[in-house]
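Pasting two entries for a bug report.
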Amino acid sequence: MASILLRCFALLALFAASFKFCYCQNETINAAGWADAGATWYGEPEGAGSTGGACGYGVAVATPPLYAMVSAGGPSLFNNGRGCGTCYQIMCTGNPACSGRPITVTITDECPGGPCASEPVHFDLSGKAIGALAKPGQAGNLRAAGAIRVGYRRAACLYKGTKIAFHVDAGSTPFYMAFVVEYENGEGDLASVEIQPAGGGFVPMQEMRSAEWKLNSNGALKGPFNVRLTSGESRKVVVAQAVIPANWKPDQTYRSIVNF
């Protein structure tokens, strides 16, 4: 009897070691880091979902390095805009059209209602992204399924050969500076953004429930501007020196020479 009990305990210990449980958004995460989520898709079958979406990326969602491999996130993923720019690996296996191979998507939009709000975690994928989950020749069948179950896990963003860019808001003035931060490697989200005008010190900017950050100033702000970024979790810091020039213009994108 003792030997049987010992064998039973050994089997239970082996089973427990093979899984890692986490009560996180009502999801169980296995040892490989995969959790369960719902997924739908929106927009054109080969498109980027929407032109820009709630995160403020605009037409950048359809162009390199994002290539329309993007997703709107339900409330837990969008996280009041703090989830903008985060990356996830997604894999589907429960539909005959699924390839079982993971893809990586970036959160660029918000999905506030329907199944996005009723499920603990939900991805509303671009048409291109859901098609990339399918076996060759099966993209149309997977899109026709409408709603599917997927495995997901947080992933590091990696935009090879791309540096962080700043798209200045069309409404910016010398007294109001706002810009969208694009293409951050690593965690993808930011804990803080600070701007340093010419002759001044670094000033904290305010996040705008998106990937956009703003600063209202009592006096006219003069460039060139340095921008200091702190990543969301690891608190890594990079400084984009003189990235926004003295003769900056609204609705223009300025590219740095740094990334995380």
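Entry 2 (this is the one that rendered wrong in the viewer):
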Amino acid sequence: MVELALESPEPSGRIALDQIFSLTATWTPCLFVNPADHICAEFIGYFEHRNLMDAIGASKLERLATQHSIGGLLIDAVGQESQPFHLIPSANMTVNLHPAANFKQAHGIHQWWSLDLHLQSKLYRYVG
């Protein structure tokens, strides 16, 4: 897990979500994901959806929507505070396209040691 510590100028100590995205936009982590892993599939869908929104001309809406998750919106709706730190602005994502037999195989690190890897890499860069 990656944790991010930022100093806030706000008295409450909270940093606005748009500030977090701006501050972390130049950070481009390398993600190694497998579509058969339900956890990793969320990252794949997140970045592909951003590309689709941009392709159909909804890039302004995409830049706003990319900073929010459905879970975060539901938590906010019931009056709880949340910040979706799992939403990252940019990533260099490598997808393992080799079929996995089960979740354990799809989530395990051993899949990356295989000699017959079938990979697809793409750089996703957030432009605010």
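Dev reply: Rendering is fixed now. As a check, the viewer should reflect this: The radius of gyration is 17 Å.
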